[in-house]
Amino acid sequence: MQDPTSASRAMDRYAAGDDSAFAEVYDGLAARLYEYLLAQVRNRALAEDLVQQTFLQMHRARGSFAAGSDVRPWAFAIARRLMIDGMRRAKRERLHVAEELQTADAKTAEPPDQWLRALLGASDADRAGLDPDDRSQGVS
Fold it and tell me: Which residues have CB under 8 Å from 48's CB, separation 6+?
């Protein structure tokens, strides 16, 4: 592992336009970011994806990096925000799927009296006390 200050110095250079400094930033932060994210999400592939997304966001926002600052809190804040956003997105998607399933079930469900007729047969449904008007719709 690199000295944390060397990653910060490399980030200063990277933010100033020295693209070759990115390798030092990556080498200084990637392993720690991965360990942190893996402990949070408990999924290796997701942790790897979040590390890559973190570095992509750092690249996009490198012009806003405060020169002379420690890069670690900035990188971990980006990683944490990406992780939380992903969790929120996944929760919304699960809720949306559940709502769609409930709507589909409601549309395909037969009315209770028709279900009872199909299950018991028309004569048993009559004995169960269904409305006489509904008896004409019985199952033969």
Answer: 34
Say yes or no: 92 and 114 in one domain. no
Residues 74 and 33 grouped into a single domain: yes
pLDDT tens-digit map of 35-63: 999 999 999 999 999 999 999 999 999 99
Q: What is the pTM of this model?
A: 0.67
Asked if 51 and 83 sit in the same domain, the reply is: yes
| Closest listed residue to residue 139, CA positions, set 120, 123, 122 | 122
Distance CA 90, CA 43 (A): 14
Single-letter amino acid, residue 39: A
Q: Is the dihedral of CA 53, 4, 76, 59 positive or negative?
A: negative
Same domain, yes or no, for 29 and 86?
yes
- d(CA 29, CA 75) in angstroms, rounded, equals 8
Containing structural domain, residue 140: 110-140
The whole-angstrom separation of Cα 71 and Cα 48 is 19
- In this structure, the answer to whether residues 22 and 54 fall within a common structural domain is yes
Distance CA 58, CA 82 (A): 12
